[in-house]
Each structure stands twice: as structure tokens, then as C-alpha cells.
Design a protein that fits this description.
The structure is a single chain. With about 500 residues, the protein is mostly helical. The protein is built from 24 helices and 2 strands. Strands 1-2 form a two-stranded antiparallel sheet.
Length: about 500
């Protein structure tokens, strides 16, 4: 009887009002998501309703912005490209990959940056005074690898030249053992040049430039020798050489040496030895607010804190009893690392394929994520439960990253130019470059959008065809209430008529 009294105007008003309300909810949800990066309905349900029901959200740590520093935000260049501290050897590793797969692992832009680095590190204005240095100055500018190698051999025919040995070790040697042998010859020649220029460095600007160049050559040789020792399994020997180089790197009179970031080589070698106390000591020295951060610094700190709780961590147990202080510290460290470089977790969790790292990286970009995961994935696997903790928490911590991208929380705002630079550094032919992981729209925004569209369509159809939509609505409501009518009939047949009349009256 109630359904038969409803007119088409009622259905038009009902659908129109429903469409208006759902549209307002959708607009508010979208505005809230654009401003705060999360759904308002979801946040209210998680923050207020879930605690009342006895649940605990173990994936959203309570972070602080104590590390946010305005001066640090201004001092860091958005798209500065850094030399990869753990870059591979061209002849013994990159070229071997090319021989096996037929693919070029290095882009032209990446190799061009390396050529510029070599000219900066290994040449000076007075190279024309010595024939070998003049030949090598031209060699570093050559685009053709064979021409560079031929020039290095030509320089060695005149005398032992450290930079010529470096070029042959990097590009001509096909094994790490041959590479190490050439670098040892380079060390002998380079050490002699360094000692001679050290005695004359204060005799004029020309000698000062030569000493600076010879210092760069000597540090480069020692660093690469340490990397050879690490690759050949002599890790303790490599650690000793890297410690000596880190002391040399901190000397303020050689500012170019800070570009080598030798402490990252040291961290990786110490992790291989599972010497976590020394790793913590190195982090305490270099993880400073005044020094530029890197994925190696942030994720190594997260690994050490995860190591303390990961072997016993269980999401179900954490939901029941809440997070302990150590677990909170580990999750906060993961949140800090994910905010610095959100591309790394997918490589560590093997959700995305690794490729050979480039010779240069863009901090907070896909290139840095590849370079870090390529060398450190084994260290995460070695710590029991560390990858499980990362898997359980990184998604929640990523949702807490400030949104939109122009905002920063623990670090300076995420640079928006990383995608363009990474496409220049990484071979896009066989690798899909990761861009900043866009936050997926929350379920409630999609739900309210669907509800708004559906009710708007119903309102339009009801306005255009009120009689027909009224028939459909009555049929739908009759079907909806059919089970209730059936139950009522059964109850009426069982109960006495007097009691049934009293119930219906009530």
C-alpha cells in the first residue's frame, strides 16, 4: 500500500537528492586527499573506530619531523647527479654483460658524465709540460674506446704513467685479477708522482694544480684497488684500505674527494663481514644533518634497527599487543628511508627486476635505488626477517609521505625532475624507469565516485522517464521486501490471531 502511493515525483526527488549528497561527499574526499594524501573516511575509521573495536594499526608509525631542517632543504640541489661509489669496471663487468646479452648497460649520457669526471680528476692545466700527460689529456677526451686504449699504450711506451694504467684497468682488462694487476702498477707510478708534487705544491699555482691532480689520481687508484680486493673475496683487506681512504677523504684541503663517497664502500664491506657494530660507528659519523643523505645511509640505518626485532616480528602479534619501542624505532627508520627514496623497497622485495647499476646516480631516483639494491640485497637477505618487516611496513610508511610532492617531512621536498634525469642515466630499452610512486586513490574515493555516478545516472533516467522508473522501483522494492513478507506470513500462521493483532497494532 505504501509503495502504491509513491508518485514519480518522489523518485525524482529521491534520486536527485542522493546524487547531490554523494557528489558533495566525493568533492570533500577528493579535496582532503589532495591536501593530506589520505581518505577522510578511511582516516576516521582507522583512527577512531578501529581502536574502539580493539584493533591496532601496526603499519603507521608515529614519526616526528625532528630531522626536517630548513637550511638543509635550501642547500641541497634538486637534480645533482653523483658518481656511483660502487660503479662496476667497464672492461671486466660492463663489457662482459654486453658480450653475453648484446645489450649496452650504459647510456651515452652516463658515459659522457664519466668522461667529464675523468678530465676533472686526472688532468690539469700544466699537462702540456710532460708528453705522457699531454697524450692522456687527449685520451680522456676521445669518444672511441679503442682510441683511448691505443693512446694509453702510447703513453706507456714513453714512461710509466698512472692515468694510462687507470684507463687500461678500467676499459681493457677483462677480469678483476687483470684489473687489480694494472691498478697496482698505477699505484706505484702514482705514488711517485704524488710524492714529487707534494714537495713542490707551495711553489706556485701550477704546482698546486699538479698536486691536486696527483692526489685525485692516488685516491682513485686506492679506492679501486680496495674494490678489487672486495670483489676477489679479500674483504678485510678492502676494509682496511677503505678506512685509510675515509680519513684522507675528510681532509678539508681536498674538497673533490668528497665526491667519491668512500664511506659507502666501507659500509658495504662491513656489512659483508657482518660487523654491525662498526657499521653503526660509521653511520654515526656520516649520518649527520649537515651531510648529504643517500639511500645507503638511510636504508643501512633501517637495516640495523630492523635487525634488532625482525627475527621475532609478526604483524598479527603486533596487532594484538601493540608495537614495542624497538619495533617503533625500526618502523620509523624504514619510514625515513622510504621517504628519502621510495623506489628501493620494490627492488629489495624483488617486485621489480634489477639491472646493472649506472656509473652515475641521481639521489632519491630510480638510478640510486638500482645501485643500492644491486649491492645490498644480499645483506638484507642475510638478516633474518628483515625483508618480511620491510614488506609489512613499507606500504604504510609510504602512505605517510607528505602529499603533494612539493611538501617535505623528514627531508627536503622530493625533486620533480628525477624522472627526466633517470631516463638519461638508465637504459630504457630493456628497463622500465620507475617514477615517483604515485599514491593510489583510496577505496572510499573510488566508492563515492561510483556511487555518485550511479545515483546521477538514476536521477537523470528518473527525470526523463518518471513513469517507467517508478515501475522499476516498485518492482525492485517488492523483490527486496518479498523475504520479509514471507516471514511475516509464516509468523501470522503460527501465532494466535489475538496475539498477531496485538503485534500488528504495536
Amino acid at each position: 500500500m505504501f509503495l502504491n502511493t509513491l508518485t514519480p515525483k518522489f523518485y525524482v526527488a529521491l534520486t536527485g537528492t542522493s546524487s547531490l549528497i554523494s557528489g558533495l561527499i566525493l568533492i570533500f574526499e577528493w579535496w582532503y586527499f589532495r591536501k593530506y594524501g589520505t581518505s577522510f573516511i578511511e582516516q576516521v575509521s582507522v583512527s577512531h573506530l578501529r581502536p574502539l573495536l580493539g584493533g591496532v594499526d601496526s603499519s603507521t608509525p608515529n614519526t616526528s619531523n625532528g630531522e626536517a631542517n630548513d637550511s638543509n632543504r635550501q642547500s641541497v640541489s634538486e637534480c645533482k647527479v653523483w658518481r656511483n661509489p660502487l660503479n662496476l669496471f667497464r672492461g671486466a663487468e660492463y663489457n662482459r654483460y654486453t658480450w653475453v646479452t648484446g645489450r649496452e648497460p650504459l647510456t651515452y649520457y652516463d658515459m659522457n658524465l664519466s668522461a667529464q669526471d675523468h678530465q676533472t680528476f686526472f688532468t690539469c692545466d700544466s699537462d702540456h709540460l710532460r708528453p705522457t700527460d699531454a697524450i692522456m689529456q687527449k685520451a680522456w677526451r676521445e669518444r672511441n674506446p679503442q682510441a683511448r686504449i691505443s693512446a694509453a699504450h702510447e703513453a706507456l711506451e714513453l714512461e710509466d704513467c698512472a692515468t694510462a694504467f687507470i684507463l687500461l684497468a678500467e676499459e681493457e682488462a677483462t677480469t678483476i685479477m687483470k684489473t687489480e694487476r694494472l691498478f697496482k702498477q698505477a699505484l706505484k707510478a702514482g705514488d711517485g708522482c704524488y710524492r714529487r708534487s707534494q714537495q713542490l705544491q707551495h711553489h706556485g699555482a701550477q704546482y698546486e694544480a699538479q698536486h691536486r691532480r696527483d692526489t685525485n689520481v692516488l685516491v682513485y687508484i686506492k679506492r679501486r684497488l680496495a674494490m678489487c680486493s672486495r670483489k676477489l673475496g679479500r674483504t678485510r683487506e678492502a676494509v682496511k684500505m677503505m678506512r685509510d681512504l675515509c680519513v684522507f677523504q675528510l681532509m678539508k684541503e681536498f674538497p673533490l674527494l668528497s665526491m667519491f663517497n668512500i664511506h659507502e664502500n666501507l659500509l658495504e664491506s662491513l656489512l659483508e663481514l657482518q660487523n654491525y657494530a662498526d657499521v653503526q660507528a660509521v653511520l654515526a659519523k656520516y649520518d649527520d644533518i649537515s651531510l648529504p643523505k643517500s639511500a645507503t645511509i638511510c636504508y643501512t640505518a633501517a637495516l640495523l634497527k630492523a635487525r634488532a626485532v625482525s627475527d621475532k616480528f609478526s604483524p598479527e602479534a603486533a596487532s594484538r599487543r601493540g608495537l614495542s619501542t624497538a619495533e617503533m624505532n625500526a618502523i620509523e627508520a624504514i619510514h625515513r628511508a622510504v621517504e628519502f627514496n621510495p623506489h628501493v623497497p620494490k627492488y629489495l622485495l624483488e617486485m621489480k627486476s634489477l639491472i646493472l647499476p649506472p656509473e652515475h646516480i641521481l639521489k632519491r631516483g630510480d638510478s640510486e635505488a638500482i645501485a643500492y639494491a644491486f649491492f645490498h640485497l644480499q645483506h638484507w637477505k642475510r638478516v633474518e626477517g628483515a625483508l618480511n618487516l620491510l614488506h609489512c611496513t613499507w606500504g604504510g610508511t609510504f602512505r605517510m609521505i607528505p602529499y603533494p610532492l612539493e611538501k617535505g617531512h623528514l627531508f627536503y621536498p622530493y625533486p620533480i625532475c628525477t624522472e627526466t634525469a633517470d631516463r638519461e642515466l638508465l637504459p630504457t630499452v630493456f628497463h622500465e624507469v620507475s617514477v615517483y610512486p604515485k599514491k593510489e586513490l583510496p577505496f572510499f574515493i573510488l566508492f563515492t565516485a561510483g556511487l555518485c555516478s550511479f545515483t546521477a545516472m538514476l536521477a537523470l533516467l528518473t527525470h526523463q522517464f518518471p513513469e517507467l522508473m517508478g515501475v522499476f522501483a516498485k518492482a525492485f522494492l517488492s523483490t527486496l521486501f518479498a523475504p520479509l513478507n514471507f516471514i511475516m506470513e509464516k509468523v501470522e500462521s503460527i501465532l494466535p490471531s489475538s496475539l498477531w493483532h496485538q503485534l500488528t497494532r504495536i
